Structures are given as structure tokens and as C-alpha cells.
Amino acid sequence: MKKQLLTLLFSACLINAYAEDGSRLWLRADTTAQATVTANRQSPVIAVAVKELQTQWRGAPVQLLIAGTKAAQTLGSDGYTIAGNPQTGVTLTAAAEQGLLYGAYHLLRLQETGALAGNINITEKPGYERRILNHWDNLDRSIERGYAGRSLWEWEKLPDTLSPRYREYARANASIGINGSVLNNVNANPQILSGEYLAKVKAIADVFRPYGIKVYLSVNFASPKTLGGLPDADPLNREVIQWWKNKVKEIYALIPDFGGFLVKANSEGQSGPQDYGRTHADGANMLADALKPYKGIVMWRAFVYSPTSEDRAKQAYQEFVPLDGQFRDNVIIQIKNGPVDFQPREPFSPLFGALQHTQEMIEFQITQEYLGFSNHLVYLAPLFKETLDSDTYAGGQGATVAKITNGALRPAKVTAIAGVANTGDSVNWCGHHFAQANWYAFGRLAWNSELSAEQIAEEWLKMTFTADENFVRPAADLMLASREACVNYMMPLGLHHIFSFNAHYGPQPWGYFPGGRMDWMPVYYHKADSAGVGFDRSKTGSNAVSQYFQPLGDLYGDIDRCPENLLLWFHHAAWTHKMKSGNSLWDELCYRYDSGVRQARDLQKAWDRLERHIDAERFDQVQAKLQIQAKDAVWWKDACLLYFQTFSKMPIPYEIERPVHRLDDLYKVWFRQEDVLNNNYCIK
Ligand code: BDP
Questions:
Q1: Is the peptide bond before 159 cis (omega within 30 degrees of 0)?
Q2: Ligand 1 centre distance from Cα of residue 20 (Å)
Q3: For 420-440, how does the pLDDT look when each residue is reduced to its tens digit (9 = 90+)?
């Protein structure tokens, strides 16, 4: 009995020592190294770089140099060179302390991914100056569209108690080059600007600073009125202007390196300058003027649309293009990757490139609001890259979204990129172990948008699981297949926004709620009828195609030449429309949904084969999530095909799997977000 107890205790300890709960993210290096590291300057940031190397670097001595040479100056504040040999000695050189920090993480990444061979001679400089996470975290610690627990920011305990996770978060970001965090939701509570909350924000900023991370805040445009007690928040009202100036002064007194404001104005019910008959430029410039003396910036969102008869996909362009050239040089317009809203696939937003005299930045969504929450394994690097690599043809061929926004083609005072974070207080940070890869990929692409999705997947897998090639190759393939699988089982061929209302999880193509906003209803987006399906955005329809530069406008506008993966985004195509495969549109749609289901099952098969290479804990958790994903894929396929069949009146090709649900039952499925996250929703 005693012996049994001892064995039990012993194995419990073992399990504990090797607990693989995902909390260490991709930062899993052994920290018992005792490397010799020297630096020619001292600062809190350099101290972090030195410590990381001292405890993890297993090679010859490393020297960190801040250099004032011309060559070093061209690297900017974040760039660096790494030169030398791991056997004889390595020198990191940078013009500023952040560069040394990023160089240190780069060197460690080479070590951890087994990429150190012989002499090292690396020069790096980031593509975007500001690489920012947007947290949609509320002050009550709920997270809008968050699927990984509650907010990391423990507002109720701040500023006195600092969670150890603030530092871990900052470290993880620094390791992938992220240098900014907008702490609160774009649907901003004015309280964030109160003295009480600013003291809490300062406490977080102090923890982030040695990791090179600046803090930014989302602000509510009505704050002077709701928080400051002024009669209005009109951006031309002198009192309002003064209120913001005072507020900004107060912020910088607490946080001297504060980054600036993110603003969602006149969008989805948020107040804004238009409430007072002013323009977005009036509003943004007023804030920009207040921030200017402190080098702060305004990220003004272009996510605006209202329930008019105009196609929602056209509205941001219509509102912002007439204002081109009117914004201050510390304003940057933050544009979602697509013209509607973070769908599994969208064309790029036509605003990229269209604002020729206004700085533009891209906003991606890392949290999977429309891609299966933290239940589905969907690796987002291919989606991010699809947008970044899209040619806008602004001013001719080769003007990719990346080059338009990162300063390569249009010199800009401010360049930036944002990703809506998928972090929360869950043990593994992101809810799904593989969702960590999306955080990682965002950071890596913000640094260098030319990295391939494959390279990033491999790096992440090696650091997060094991460098064993027998694991890494197939696991990378699985990741790379996952986004297209998701598009296929949710919304192939350019279908979009046919999610269950509000929750944005699961299919509800029939969604129509009398009296509600039409532009929030799935039927608005697919427009299925007895003739066909899809949103006609060609010249005969809303003519959204005219917002794209040529030759894209014509290409998208021609039903026979439009890329088929966007067909139903731009066209209302007949059910009998002949596809490139020779199939009718209806048959093709059926085959796509079916292949999505099969791909979801293939993800399961591929994962099960990898069991022996990794720890049981994470293996089991991912396996359980993949089961949900495969079940959901069938739900999607059945719901969409059975519903669209009520219009096409055509048979589901007989060789593909039959539906296992009845449409009447699917109409009744109802659940809340928590049910989805607890895997407690039932499809009959
Ligand atoms: C949509 C979300 C909503 C956000 C909005 C935004 O459904 O919760 O507030 O975007 O970006 O995707 O402002």
C-alpha cells in the first residue's frame, strides 16, 4: 500500500515536472545556460536582451553593441546585424536598444529551430515600424470576440498587484517583434481615460517598457462629454479641443512613451465627428494635434457602414476617398483586410492604394470570430499573406497591399500593422494550442511580410512542439491545408457572412429577422433565389468592382474571368453557370462543401498519426478540438446545401456523402457563445 502510494506520488511529480499545458507558448528553451554576454551600454531593454541570452544561449560569447555608425543608423531603431560564429563568438549590432533585443531573440530562434550552421551574417529591419496587437478587452474583463477566457488585464487588482502574465505577454510579443498593444476594446468605455484607470494603464506600461512595447488606448469619441461633462464632443468646439489636450498631457505625464489613440467613430453606433456634422478628418486631426507634441499617433478606423441601400462593401471607400489628403501626418487610417468583415475569404479592401495622400495601415483579425472560434484549427498565415501579397495595381503593377502600407512604394511618416488579439487568461493563452501559431504568424509577418506561411509554421512547430522532422513536416502540411478546408466547409466560391446571427459561429444562411438591420442578415449577403446565388457587385449590380484599379475592376466584374474563389462575392451566378471544372455552379458548390468535410477529417487523420512524437496532454486536447471541427464541418455542409437546395431544386450529386441532418432540425439550433466554448451545443 505504502509502495503504491509512493509510486503514485512519484508519477504525479513526474507528470507535473513535464506538464505540457501550452502556457510556455513558443518560448520553451532550456534556461540553464550560462553564456558569456557583454554589452557596451546599459538600459532596462538591454538588460532583458542580456538575460535572455545568458540563460538560453549555448554557444560562444555574445557581444551586444550599440553603434553610431552610418551603417547602423540605416537599420532604424529596431533593426540589427548578427555576425560571427556560434563556436567562436557572435556580435549583435544595432543603432538602438530595441534592435539588440530583437537580435537576441533572433539568435535564440536560430538555435531553437536548429538553424545554426557555421558563420552567421544577418541583417534585419522590420517592414512596418509599428507592429501592434489590438485587444478588444472590456474593463469588466470580458473580451469582445474573445474565445480564450477573460482579459489578461486584471483591472480590479491594478495598479497595486501585477499579474506575472503581463511580463510573460510582453516577452512573447518582443520575441516575435510586436512593439505595441492597444489595451482596450475599440468599442471603448470612456472610463479608460479617467485618472483611476490611467494609473492602471501606467502600471502595465511600466512592465511592458523593457520589452520595447508601447501602450496605446482605444478612445471613445464622446469622452469629453460623457467623462468630462462638457455639453458636446464636437471636434471644432474649443472646450473639447482643450479637454483632449489636457487629457493627452495627463497621459504623457504618466507614460512618457505612450503610443497614441485608436478610434472607432461613427461605426456600429459609436459616436463620432459626424454627430456634429463634421468629417472623419476633422475628428482625427483634432486628436492628432493634441498628440503631436508628444509624437503620439492616431489610428483612425475605416470600418464604417450604415444600413442604407448602398452595398456595405462599398461604404468605407465612399466615405474616405473624398477625404484623401486632409489628414495630419500623425494620422493613419486603419483598414480591415477585406471590405466587409474578417470573413474566411474576402478580396482585399479597395481602400488600399485608393488613399494616395493619406497613410494607410492594415488590420487583421487573429481571434477567430468568423473562423470557428478557438474550436477550429485554422492557420491564418495563408489568409494574412493573401491580402499582403494582393496587387492593388495602384499606380501600376506590383503595388501589393504590403508595399502600399509598409512605405516601400509610398514613403510615409508612420507605417503600422494591427492584429486583433486572440489572447485571454486561459492557461494556453489562446484557447486552442494551434491558435498560438496565429499570434506568432502575425508578429512574424508584421516584421517581414515576405516570409512564407510554411516557413513560419515550421519555425513555430519546432519551438512549440519538437524539431523532429517526422513531426514538423506533416504538422506543417496540416496547418497549411487548414484555412482552405475552413473556406470549403463554411463559405466556398466567395460566399460570405452566412453565420448564425450575432454569435458568428455555425451556419445560418436562412438568417432573416424582420425589423432588424438588413446588412446584418445572411440573406443580404448570399441573395439566393430560384435563378442563382451570390451578391452582384458587377456593373449590373452594386458596381463595387469600380472601386478597384484596372485591370482588377474588369477582371472581378466579368463573370467568366472572375477568380472562382471570389465568384459569389462579385456575382449572382446561375445555378447552372458553367464552372472551369465543367460542373454546374450547384454541383461545384456541393463538391466544395463535401471536400471541406473531407479535409476536416484529413486534419484529424494527420494529427492522429503524430501522436507518438509529442506529449499526451497537448495531443489529446488538440484531438478533442479536431473532433468538434469535423462535426461542425458536417453541420455547415448540411445546413448550406439543404438550404440552398430549396432554391436550386437540384439534386446533391449522388456520389457525395448524404446529409445526416434534417433542415427543419437545423433551423431550430440555438446556442450562446459560452455553449460553443464549453462544447455544449447540440445539433440534432
Ligand atoms: C465586427 C465584430 C464587432 C466589432 C467590429 C469592429 O463583430 O464585435 O466591434 O467588428 O471591428 O467584426 O469594430
A1: yes
A2: 33
A3: 999 999 999 999 999 999 999
